[in-house]
Amino acid sequence: MSLLLANVRPYGGELTDFVVDDGVIAKIGAAGRVDELLDAQGAVLLPGLVDLHTHLREPGREDAETVATGSAAAALGGYTAVFAMPNTDPAADSAGVVEQVHRLGQASGLVDVQPIGAVTVGRAGQQLAELGAMADSAARVRVFSDDGACVSDPALMRRALEYVKAFGGVIAQHAEDPRLTVGAQMNEGNVSGRLGLAGWPAVAEESIIARDVLLAAHVGSRLHVCHVSTAGSVELIRWAKSKGWAITAEVTPHHLLLTDECADGYDPVFKVNPPLRTQTDVDALRAGLADGTIDCVATDHAPHAVEDKETEWGAALPGMLGLQTALSIVIETMLVPGRLDWRGVAERMSVAPARIGGLAGHGRELEVGAPANLVLVDPDSRWTVSPAGLASRSRNTPFAGRSLPGRVVATLLRGRITARGGAVVGDAALEGAESDAAVSA
Amino acid sequence: MIKHLLSAADLERAAAISILDTAEQLDRALAGREVKKLPPLRGRTVVNLFYEDSTRTRTSFELAAKRLSADVVNFSAKGSSVSKGESLKDTALTLEAMDADAVVVRHSYSGAAHRLSEWVRGSVINAGDGTHEHPTQALLDAFTMRRRLRDGVGDLAGLHVAIVGDVLHSRVARSNVLLLATLGASVVLVAPPTLLPVGVESWPVDVSYDPDAALPGCDVVMMLRVQRERMGASFFPSAREYSRRYGLDQTRMSRLPDHAIVMHPGPMNRGMEIAAEVADDPKRSTIVEQVTNGVSVRMAVLYLMLGGAAGVDSGESE
Which strands sit side by side in the sheet containing B186-190, from one edge to the other? Predict the structure, then answer.
């Protein structure tokens, strides 16, 4: 079945038409006869977004999110692929669990769900998980992480970095020295001192990154640094890249926008790990993302049930929703101020994460023959975030009530529309699930 | 008057002085009376919600409320649904259903009082939240200083106050720093660098690592409790070393000006941060007085926040 995407602006450029047929981009420019028409009315066309860092909570916390609801949020947010973090219950540390997550993703069919495998058994940091078995499984795992926990043992980290070379894997490190963050609740600084909340110092992230880039260089391995949050980390990564070492890094949308001042009212919706930092850090992260020191934006979408957030700050679980707001926040913090153009947005939110994670079908140039994993964005329309309007099973967005630029007009996975006009298309159970795209002027 | 008392920063200068003045009035109104009770909060309900054991603070609030004729309900963590894992939010909804006029809350988590204030209609009074604040302690400390050193009137302008000890984990220190700044006193924090928060340079205080340099010029020395468990996390090497470097003993006390007073919010570790003979010094130590003043100050807070009728004096005539 052929589909005409009429009046699109690829990478924000000149108006043209795209014909999608048989799951690929079949033609660019004047179309012939087609089965279906989608008039994009000048929307920007990008390769479908790829998230290297998503928590889908299944198996174990299906009350907070499932692969299906998380996939719906992803499709509505413009994503065509997400990498599912392994901190589930049980942890995704074996071929069995990663295959289960992979299968659930295929059943949902809204995005490609690519499981990330745990580095260590039970993510306990003691013993390597069967990384090869996960790589060889039907889920074809290539990214490994103990995310939520740091692989803090330097000898174990070294072995993990070395071992995954055999199958082209990469270790994605959650950089947090556990001894420096015992009981930590928020960024250590003026605000934590005033609020009496135990501090999570920047050095706990930076010291691990410094160690890991040296380890990766020593053994000639790739290293990916998750959710970089401090100015010092950006400097370290810039230095490591200047040496020619194979280091990549991601930043979350919330670290590009919010600061530790948000903790002021003790509302745990702003509690996240790594914590929100200072404006100096935010500025450095934006600059790092602009100049390519930070390769990509990853959401760290972390749904939590109401009872885990409507509580005391110290008792709340860390994490924020991100899939449906990420693109808007990148538009606001990077595109509107001119730090990135649409090409740059595509590079940081699709091309780079697909390359780092080894997903050949995603993040491709918009050209004839490429898989039709696409997103159409109306950059001029604003919307107001309403937690109840999000497709996620959880409500913990830190952006509630905030007006953001950029709405997803439609998302296509291999030529099939998965979300359109703020509603999911194609999954019977979720069909009609509303997004939060309540249009405001 | 303010709706909630969550932080000493909620009090502007006029409000803080009004609380201290009201406490003086209430104190005088009750002085020498056999029946220590005034009627202004008759029919009002005050709930003491204590998630941490604190006999001193809880009984102080209870006595304050009862002396104003309020009905007092004590919720403590032990032996209630709280210990069965009920969330703070559910407890708040329960209190809401009971229509409490004020909730006095003590909790081990910083910010718990802030959270609670979003979930109940009544006034919330923070009686200590984690390592954040304890504003009524700061008020009773200011009341004590004012009585001893300023004849019980006005503010504390020109007063030099040293706060000595575990500032990092102290809610008493945070509230005192804020309130003392509001009332015009100058504060020096004296502690080993490990027990000062990162960012302390943004506070309205001076900082010293050396009590022998800092104390001799002070009118008030406030010693903070230091928990022995802190040694385990390497905040200091041993109780003996802490005591020697930062404890207040006879020798250090003798270098204070004649009029200087020694305070401690309790409970004390005698022999650790404060020597027994210093704690019991009849001239300088205000430790017992602080407890007495605590009741008067908490009466004033409850009275003003619950909008106690037409003034203190109207109570006496009934």
Answer: B206-208, B186-190, B160-164, B220-223, B261-263
Range of the domain at B185: 135-290
Mention every residue, 6+ apart, whose C-beta is less than 8 A from residue B74.
B47, B48, B50, B58, B62
Cα of A151 to nearest chain B Cα, Å:
23
Shared domain check, B165 and B21: no
Is the CB of B198 less than 8 angstroms away from the CB of A199?
yes
Dmax of chain A from CA atoms? 67
pLDDT digits (tens, 9 = 90+) for A93-112: 999 999 999 999 999 999 99
Closest CA in chain B for residue A265: B114
* Residue B265, domain CATH: 3.40.50.1370
List chain A domain ranges: 2-45+369-380+399-440, 48-357
The verdict on a CB contact (< 8 Å) between B114 and A190 is: no
Q: Are residues B171 and B103 in the same domain?
A: no
Of B209, B146, B122, B111, the C-alpha closest to A267 is B111
Q: Which pair of structure tokens corresponds to residue A35?
A: 């089965």
A131-164 burial code (b ≥16 CB/10 A, e <16): bbebbebebbbbbbbbbbbbbbeeebbbbbbbbb
What pLDDT does B207 receive?
A: 98
Structure-token pair, residue A79 = 């994503």
Total beta-carbon pairs less than 8 A apart between chain A and chain B: 74
Does one domain contain both B118 and B149?
A: no
Contacts with A185 from chain B: Cβ below 8 Å: 110
Q: Could you give the dihedral angle defined by the CA atoms of residues B247, B252, B254 and B259, in that order, rounded to the nearest 10 degrees?
A: -70
Catalytic residue among A146, A300, A308, A427: A300
Q: Any catalytic annotation for residue A300?
A: yes
d(CA A54, CA A86): 9
Overall number of domains in chain B: 2
The low-confidence residues of chain B, meaning pLDDT below 70, are: 78-85, 308-318
Per the document, the length of chain B is: 318
Selected for mutation to probe chain B from A194, A271, A309 (highest B CB count within 10 Å) is A194
Q: Are residues B243 and B306 in the same domain?
A: no
pTM given for the model: 0.94
Phi and psi at residue A66, to the nearest 5° = -125, 170
Q: pLDDT by residue (tens digit) across A269-308?
A: 999 999 999 999 999 999 999 999 999 999 999 999 999 9
User: What CATH class has A48-357?
Assistant: alpha beta
CATH architecture of A2-45+369-380+399-440: Roll (2.30)
Mutate which of B4, B115, B167 to test chain A, going by most A C-beta atoms within 10 A? B115
